[in-house]
Amino acid sequence: MPKNNLDAILRTQRAAFNENPNSSWGERKNNLIKLGKAIADNEANFQQAISEDFGNRSFVETTIAEMAIIHGGIKHALKHTQKWMRARKAPTAMQFKPASNKIIPQPLGVVGIISPWNYPLQLAVMPLIGALGAGNRVMIKPSEYTPRLSNLLKSVLGEVFSDDEIHVAVGGVKIAQEFSGLPFDHLLFTGSTNVGRIVAGAASKNLTPVTLELGGKSPVIVDDSANMSLTIPRITNGKLLNAGQTCVAPDYLLMPEREINAFSKALIAKAEEFYPKFAGNPDYTSIIADSHYARLQGLLEDAQNKGATLRTAGDDDTQVMAGERRIPLTVVTNTTPDMKIMQEEIFGPLLPILASETLEDSMQYVQEHDRPLALYWFGEDKAKREHVLRNSISGGVSINETAWHVVQEDIPFGGVGPSGMGAYHGEHGFKTFSHMKGVFFQSKFSGGKMLYPPYTEKTQKVLKMMKKFM
Ligand code: NAD
């Protein structure tokens, strides 16, 4: 699509917004219901399209990690948005009374959403829910790695929304670059940290505010006090969902050397229980593209060359697996920080374990690296848990679990530092896509006139009196 068309669509959306900048709860509710119905009516088509884009994506995973999250988000928005939309009173300092203050939430106008391929439906639609609930018009640029899903999303949304309400711009990096250069009223980008930097740079030229939902290496700290029968399946499941292609997947484990051998064997055994076969198993998801498959193999090769030990789940035919772009859980031990697998986000079913003898060592390792999108701590020792929560900085945390904090609609979802800026989901999304306008209502009886010039001795006395209230 030539650039002018994207510009023209933005202009059309902005004109439509300007005609109705204060959409009612009824209109927003109707949009959210329409969106939910369109997604539900096409569930099977979405499952099929995503699976074909991946090579294989488990239909159940699509239901759990795309459909259920979207419907949960819509249900929550339908229940609460009317309340979030209300103007609310704000306190007024003594010296300004009897004046009063209010905060009026307003839509921003036209919101842009750029989404990645790993959960291609959910990561386009969850921000859309927040943006529509806040009363905005929306343009979406989904990933070129999932063309079937992107085209289907365009046609499904195009059937129920007009182009001046929601427009889906399908295409590759060139379109993405043009898209991120548009003067949106807000731009939410989900993707890698490197591209996030480029997108933030493009948006800054228009002073478009950005929410950046990025990636990184999310650590898991396993404490001595952890309940192993809960810890092993939860880490295995969090790592192998979508074959590890999850922004909040556990990226690496930190634990004492003496526990690593037994722990890695238990992880492999659990993976084999979850997936008795990896090849041809409809439950197990393929790696999205040859380039990512090669990248993951490269990480293993580099680790092995530098002295790591690899333990692989299952005994599937490696040729067949390569043909299906599948990699079973591979636990990497004797890991050192100089290995590439410890330096870049893995985004696949490889799980390095780094020996760390004490909690202090683990905390230090985490603190010395980029602030992660997620941090996981497994254990029953409450004092240590509190220590970790208070002294580590990450986008979010799940305690005794992996990933599930992301689907809690009442807590913000977002990164910090290189893992992102800003947040959404639930009311946090509503606020991200709203302007919280502060309004001051002056009173007839304002004492402000006592501070009018010319400044005299009387003014000095008033100022002295005012200081008592400040
Ligand atoms: P990516 O950064 O390569 O691409 C994301 C989107 O950006 C795509 O739509 C792509 O077309 C677009 N894009 C690519 N180059 C661009 C450019 N120069 N200018 C503007 N847009 C451009 O990411 P990906 O490979 O699709 O997704 C994987 C990454 O996303 C991982 O790092 C993962 O951790 C992260 N991620 C983060 C979250 C989160 O919520 N924080 C969720 C999922 C994935």
Walk me through the structure:
The protein is built from 16 helices and 16 strands. The protein is an alpha/beta fold. The chain has 2 domains: 3-214 and 420-435, Aldehyde Dehydrogenase, Chain A, domain 1; 219-414, Aldehyde Dehydrogenase, Chain A, domain 2 (3-Layer(aba) Sandwich), CATH 3.40.309. The strands form 3 sheets. It has a 7-stranded mixed sheet, with helices on both faces. Strands 5-4-3-6-7-15 form a 6-stranded mixed sheet, with helices on both faces. The longest helix has 27 residues, at 59-85. The model has no long low-confidence stretch (mean pLDDT 97). The structure holds nicotinamide-adenine-dinucleotide.
Question: How are the secondary structure elements laid out?
Answer:
Elements: H1 3-19, H2 25-41, H3 43-54, H4 59-85, E1 88-90, E2 100-107, E3 110-114, H5 122-133, E4 137-141, H6 147-160, E5 166-168, H7 173-180, E6 186-190, H8 193-204, E7 210-213, E8 219-222, H9 228-240, E9 252-255, H10 257-274, H11 290-305, E10 309-312, H12 318-323, E11 330-333, E12 350-355, H13 359-367, E13 374-378, H14 382-391, E14 396-399, E15 420-421, H15 426-432, E16 434-441, H16 457-469
Parallel strand pairs: 3-4, 3-6, 4-5, 6-7, 8-9, 8-13, 9-12, 11-12, 13-14
Antiparallel strand pairs: 1-2, 2-16, 7-15, 10-11
Helix pairs in contact: 2-4, 3-4, 3-6, 4-5, 5-15, 9-10
Keywords:
470 residues, alpha/beta, Aldehyde Dehydrogenase, Chain A, domain 1, Aldehyde Dehydrogenase, Chain A, domain 2, 2 domains, seven-stranded mixed sheet, 16 strands, 45% helix, binds nicotinamide-adenine-dinucleotide
